[in-house]
Amino acid sequence: MAFCRKCGEAIDDEAVVCPYCKAPQMVRAEVSDDGGFLWGLLGFLVPVAGLVLFLAWKDSRPKTARAVGMGALVIGLIGALWFEFVLGVTLSAILHNIAFQLAHLQ
Ligand SMILES: [Zn+2]
């Protein structure tokens, strides 16, 4: 047994419209949009899924979309920094190696 959100009359759980005052009962249509930590974690662990969910939910579930998008963004930034670090170390090692060989050519 549920109660009408407008007039408070007892109505059927499955009722879409209150039979007494005709007020729409939206309980079942509401989506949960809690922007929870787990959604951020999902975006962090699976950034591609995070990006897809962000684009799919940015209008209907803005808080959750932001959480999952932030997770994907954080891992993306970490990944970009890590990539630059590895690339920088690798290039530096190669350049040092070339310089060393040039210096000892004779
Ligand atoms: Zn009602």
How would you sum up this structure, described in words?
With 106 residues, the chain is mainly alpha-helical. The protein folds into two domains: 1-30; 32-106. The chain has three helices and two strands, in the order ββααα. The chain has a two-stranded antiparallel sheet with strand order 1-2. Helix 1 (37-45) packs across helix 2, helix 1 (37-45) runs parallel beside helix 3 and helix 2 packs antiparallel against helix 3. The longest helix has 42 residues, at 62-103. Bound molecules: zinc ion.
Low-confidence region ranges: none
- What percent of the residues sit in helical stretches (DSSP H or I)? 55-70%
**Class by helix and strand content?**
mainly alpha
User: CA-to-CA gap between the ends?
Assistant: 94 Å
Ligand identities: zinc ion
Radius of gyration: 27 Å
Strand content: under 5%
Characterize the largest beta sheet: strand count, sense, and whether it forms a barrel: 2 strands, antiparallel
Helix and strand topology:
Blueprint: E1 2-3, E2 10-11, H1 37-45, H2 47-57, H3 62-103
Bound molecules: zinc ion.
Explain briefly what this protein structure is.
The chain is mainly alpha-helical and 106 residues long. The chain is 58% helix and 4% strand. The chain has helices at residues 37-45, 47-57, 62-103, and strands at residues 2-3, 10-11.
